[in-house]
TrEMBL record:
Any one cellular-component term (Gene Ontology): cytosol
One Pfam short name: DUF150_C
Source organism phylogeny: Bacteria, Pseudomonadati, Bacteroidota, Flavobacteriia, Flavobacteriales
Protein's name according to its UniProt entry: Ribosome maturation factor RimP
Domain (Ribosome maturation factor RimP C-terminal) ranges: 80-153
NCBIfam families membership: PRK02001.1
Gene3D superfamilies: RimP-like superfamily, N-terminal
Organism: Muriicola jejuensis
Length: 153
């Protein structure tokens, strides 16, 4: 019952704020509500507060005792939805598939998957030494086991 009420509130919030979207919503048996949201341009503290208030002000604490946590995915969290890739174009990703792990720059996104590019040092076709080659690969969304943004320090 509580999860349905929260979900209904979230649906309305995302209608009013189309750049935001839901990553995860859980309600524990002890009524701990955890909502993870993301946005096409990221998530601000104000966005989290808006979502929190919309849920909290529409639930009756007299009938149900609950705790509420609204967060955005952390910088180290894997990308879990195709929509999350849009704001990461131009960033370096580490993408794990069932066959390999590929690290490259996210250059484009389609309805089917993503395209990564990276530079590789390979032997020259003729003669000694190595040459730098630009590599590129299309990775379909169903093939992605895990994808993380590579953080630079």
């Amino acid at each position: 019952m509580l999860k349905e009420e929260v979900k209904a509130r979230l649906d309305q919030i995302f209608l009013d704020n189309p750049s935001l979207f839901l990553i995860e919503c859980t309600v524990s048996p002890s009524n701990q509500i955890r909502v993870v949201i993301d946005g096409d341009e990221g998530v601000t503290l104000e966005d989290c507060m808006t979502v929190s208030r919309a849920i909290e002000h529409n639930l009756d604490r007299e009938t149900v005792d609950f705790s509420l946590e609204v967060t955005s995915p952390g910088a180290t969290e894997p990308l879990s939805m195709p929509r999350q890739y849009n704001k990461n174009i131009g960033r370096k990703l580490e993408v794990k598939t069932s066959e390999a792990t590929i690290t490259g720059t996210l250059v484009s996104i389609s309805a089917e998957g993503i395209r990564l590019e990276w530079k590789s040092r390979e032997p020259k076709p003729i003669g000694k030494g190595k040459t730098t080659v630009l590599k590129s690969e299309e990775i379909p969304f169903p093939s992605i086991v895990k994808a993380n943004v590579v953080l630079k320090f």
